[in-house]
Amino acid sequence: MSATTEHAEANAIRVAKSRNAKRWRPLLPAVIFLVVMTQIPFLVTIIISFTSWNIMYPNDTAFGTLRNYEAVLNDRLMIAAMGNTVVMVVATVLACLLLGLVLALLLNRRFFGRGVVRTMLITPFLIMPMASSLIWKHLIYNPQYGMLRSIRVWLDDIGISLPFVNMTSDYPMLSIIVVLVWTWTPFMFLILLAGLQSQDPEVLEAADVDGASNWAKLRYMTLPLLRPYIELCIVLGVIYLLNTYDQVFTITQGGPGTATTNLPYAIYLTAFRGYDYGEASAAGVLVVIASIIIAGFGLKLISSLADDTIAPKEAAR
Amino acid sequence: MSTTAATRERAADTRARQPGHSRWGWLLSLLAWVLGILFILPVAWTVYVSFHQEVDAAVSPPDFLAPLTTDQYEKVFGSRARPALINSLMAAGFSTLFVIALAVPAAYATGVKPIRQARGVLQWILSTKFLPLIAALVPVYVVFQRLGLLDNIWALVVFYTGMNLPIAIWMMHSFLKEIPKDIMSAAEVDGASLWRILTSIVLPLAMPGIAATGLICFILAWNEFMFALNLTATVAGTSSVYLVSFITSEGLFIAQLSAAALVVSIPVVIAGWVAQDKLVQGLSLGAVK
């Protein structure tokens, strides 16, 4: 009797296992491809980072050295790049968040042309970053024929005098951050708007009945509700902005001096101008470690927000 | 899903129409319009400049009576832009096709007939998206160089497929999850093979999701610059690489620059306008619907 049950149980487990193995099949191509395309390059990066490898000295390669990490931590370019990256990412994320929140609150109302305004707002995010960088560098910032100069002249005509500034040389970091904010605000605005629209209107109506002020509703009801969305903006913003490259490459080439050199641009310079693959890879590993710390937080957040998306199904059916 | 979004918006509308909200409402609407125009202004300015001759484009402040011309667009299409656009179309188009071909079956195995480890696998896929691309630049370059694939458009196709696959799997996962289970079970009882279930049941039902996912992958691949710059040269250079020549240009060139910047951007701007509702879902890796 009990032998039959045991036998049946063992059988059931075997059937479930083989069914699970069968279910893996459609997933395998994607998983294998992802391992090859993402895990192997990072493994190679780690190996190169412990290898002395400057292609100017092809015979002088040696594995098992910490020289590259020492080099990164003593390299003025890299140290400047770390500071610049923090300034660039933090300032951009905060400004995008604030602007995105204002825009989301404004667009979460019905008004004439809401769809048009929404379309106008997301357009900067769609323009090819390389193209928008060129547009800002030459058509907006240029001190001879740029839009900012024209606006200054027009304001002058109506009696408002502003000092003359050459954005890219006088305020290089600010001119990069402005372009990044212009590009990334639409992204945060869309996330926050989705958050606002998940708000239960009845709760706010109840607050209306209780005579709550608009500020109180925003401060004590809307903002707490938006909290996970705001956190999502910060995590994704940091992750995406850590990769900023096009704007620096185009608008300032990291200059003047190293004023706007961030980590991706410094890694690019080290690898493809200095030909030091070892040091570039070591810097890359450090960026990965920073990302992993932020991502550890982000993974949890995205999983919990999308919990219904990946909620464990009844394992076998 | 779209119906719930519509309901939410309608609910928000009802709220906005209530008295007490509308006294200053017009001012808020005006502010929204002003900010919208401010965001589009650099693009509008570029459109304006692109329809002028170089001599008129370099005048500041602009002379609004200067004659309009489409010369710049003709010049752009007569230049190296054409092969660059074709390269971009190939890199973005083929990588998107491959991404969909890999992501739909993968999402089937996480969302429709889930494997037991679905949650862990999805988290791992997500985690690959958090690794910064810059750290892969040197190894990818070295490997493609060894394989003799530098300046080859197929190298970019392969790279972009890997770059977009995690996003695509997450998006397709959330789309496929919503297909009624009964349809699948019925097909299984009929003894249909996996291939048949995928092509004749999943594919037609998931078409809107596939279209949205495809558009996002296309946009991301089309706009990519860092890898395109370092992996290609004269033969396989994409649109973003084509624009590099404008960075340090001297003399009268901004009208042509404007036309070039707009021409290479227009395909994805239109794709993005079409996919605006799905844009945020893709870029938040499925966390926001």
From TrEMBL, chain A:
SUPFAM superfamilies: MetI-like. PROSITE patterns: ABC_TM1 (PS50928). The chain crosses the membrane at residues 27-57, 77-107, 119-140, 171-194, 225-242, 280-299. The keyword Transmembrane helix applies. This is Sorbitol/mannitol transport system permease protein. It is a multi-pass membrane protein. Keywords: Cell membrane, Membrane, Transmembrane, Transmembrane helix, Transport. Residues 82-298 form the ABC transmembrane type-1 domain. Belongs to the binding-protein-dependent transport system permease family. GO terms for cellular component: plasma membrane. GO terms for biological process: transmembrane transport.
TrEMBL record, chain B:
InterPro entries: BP-dep_ABC_trans_perm, MetI-like, MetI-like_sf. It comes from the Bacteria. It is found in: Cell membrane. Residues 85-275 form the ABC transmembrane type-1 domain. It is a multi-pass membrane protein. The chain crosses the membrane at residues 24-45, 84-109, 121-141, 153-176, 197-221, 227-245, 252-275. Keywords: Cell membrane, Membrane, Transmembrane, Transmembrane helix, Transport. Its main location: membrane. One of its GO terms (cellular component) is plasma membrane. One of its GO terms (biological process) is transmembrane transport. Belongs to the binding-protein-dependent transport system permease family. This is Sorbitol/mannitol transport system permease protein. The lineage of its organism: Bacteria, Bacillati, Actinomycetota, Actinomycetes, Propionibacteriales.
